[in-house]
Specification:
Layout: H1 9-25, H2 32-53, H3 58-84, H4 90-113, H5 121-127
Protein name: Four helix bundle protein
Organism: Bdellovibrio bacteriovorus
Pfam family, one: 23S_rRNA_IVP
Length: about 130
């Protein structure tokens, strides 16, 4: 049985983002503190998407989607630090930032959909496509 949130493109992207982050954090030269913070922020994204989808009230759902978006933004300075420490290449940095930009936009639309200010959730699942 598949849960409905597993069909969300934003959830799938957040899971893939976590796999990339996990591989990066295994590299030499990444401090434990930075690895812990980035790991927690990255995993918070799909966890909050899942928890939000498990909530009954739209306001609760919306709040978890905003939290997930905040966690995506929290990853940006950690990625910048990894880049400054030469733990990731410029291309990796750009790719990670691009992934987070898309995830952030999708989470904004998902949160807004709870108020009826954006596309319906079912349309978000099937029609919202990002590069």
């Amino acid at each position: 049985m598949k849960f409905s949130f597993e069909n969300l493109e934003v959830y799938q992207r957040a899971i893939k983002f976590n796999l990339v982050i996990d591989d990066i954090l295994k590299r030499e030269g990444v401090t434990r503190t930075l690895a812990d913070q980035l790991s927690r922020a990255a995993i918070s994204i799909p966890l909050n998407i899942a928890e939000g989808n498990g909530r009954w009230h739209k306001g609760d759902k919306r709040q978890f989607f905003w939290i997930a978006r905040g966690s995506a933004f929290e990853c940006i300075p950690a990625i910048e630090i990894l880049s400054l420490k030469n733990a990731i290449s410029g291309q990796e940095k750009d790719s990670l930032r691009s992934d987070l930009e898309v995830i952030g936009r999708m989470l904004t639309k998902l949160a807004q959909a709870q108020d009826g200010r954006s596309q319906s959730l079912s349309r978000l699942n099937t029609q919202t496509k990002y590069p």
